[in-house]
Amino acid sequence: MPETLEILLWCAALATWLMLFFGATAERLKPLAKFLGHLLEVAFRLRAK
What we know:
By secondary structure, this protein is mainly α. 96% of the residues lie in helices and 0% in strands.
């Protein structure tokens, strides 16, 4: 039983760190995604004219 509890705690800790990592990464990539979306919009606007 204690071994199972230890494994559960390790999994919870790993899940917490992964959630924090991906949350921070997503926040950093938002400006890049906005910039790429703007570039695509400009490119297709120029092609449509």
